Each structure stands twice: as structure tokens, then as C-alpha cells.
Amino acid sequence: MASTNSFSGHNYGVQIGSNPGTVINTFSEDPLDKLPIACGAEFSSYADQHEDNCLPGTRTELRETIAEWAVSPHGKCIFWLNGMAGTGKSTIARTVAKSFKENGQLGASFFFKRGEADRGNAKRLISTITRQLVTSHGDLAPLVSKAIKNDPNISQIS
User: Fold this and answer.
1) DSSP states of 20-46
2) Is residue 2 within 8 Å of 21, Cβ to Cβ?
3) Can you give the pLDDT at residue 134?
4) Cβ of 38: how many Cβ atoms within 10 Å?
5) Alpha carbon distance 99, 26 (integer Å)
6) Nearest alpha carbon to residue 109 among 123, 98, 120, 121
7) Entry pTM
8) Is the dihedral of CA 134, 139, 141, 143 positive or negative?
């Protein structure tokens, strides 16, 4: 007597054995896996784990300004932190991101790094941020998956 087995999902590993019946394998591909990301761009990445944060009690006025902007319903959508090279912009951004993460306020982050292929330009900025937002807010997954299914090349559009 033949048997029919079916399963859905990802297939990892090696399969060894015999089955005198019929096996139906159905594999689904998660559309979110198609989003190209910039590895190491997230503030808590392994590659940058030893990068500096602000020392306690330093840059407090600017950090408070950023924190107030983040929770203000009337603030602008983007807080543009600019300044000359070496003035501590990345250190401030890492410190704020760490604080927001600890308080459950951080949705996503992207740290550019000159000279690194994926982090040296904005090509993967949106898809990396999107992937992080889906991870931190799972209710976005079906919406993002639908957008990718509707246009599989959506992450390539400039």
C-alpha cells in the first residue's frame, strides 16, 4: 500500500532512505529573503562591536535633542546629523541607537562606512531598513511580502 506524505517549508540537510510510497514536497520561498541587505550596517553588528559610544555625561544636550525629536508627533521625519569628519557623528548615532534599542524604541538603523561595498553607498539602505523593520515589527511582514510578490524587482528600483 502506497502512502502519501506532504509537507511545506524549507528543506535543510541531507535526506537518506527509501520510501515505497509517494512523497510530495512543496517548498515555499519567503519573499523577504529576496531583499538584499548590507551586512554590518546595523548599529549592533559584530563588525562594529568595538566602536565607541559617548562617555557618560558627554554630548548630553545633543542626545536629548535627538531623543525629544524621536518622540515628538510634530517633528520632521528625518533628523539630519551633520558635521565635519571626526567630530563624533557616528559615536553619537551609535549611542542614541543603543539607548533607543534598550528602551524598545529603535525600529532600524543603518551605519554607512566609507570604503565598504554595501555600506559605502545607499544602494541597500531601504531594503536593509525594511528587513530590520519587519524583524522588529512582525506585523509588517505580510505587507512587505505582498509588495515583493507584486514586483519581485522592487528592491532594484532607484
Assistant:
1) SSEEEEE----GGGGS---TT-STT-G
2) yes
3) 95
4) 25
5) 43
6) 98
7) 0.73
8) negative
Q: Kindly compute the dihedral angle of the four CA atoms of residues 62, 67, 70, 75, in this order, to the nearest 10 degrees.
A: -50
Q: What is the β-pairing status of strands 4-8 and 22-26?
A: parallel
Give the pLDDT confidence of 35-87 residue by residue, as tens digits. 899 999 998 887 777 888 999 999 999 999 999 999 999 978 889 999 998 99
pLDDT tens sequence across 117-142: 899 999 999 999 999 999 999 999 99
Residues in the chain: 158
The structural domains of the chain, with segments of one domain joined by +, span: 30-156
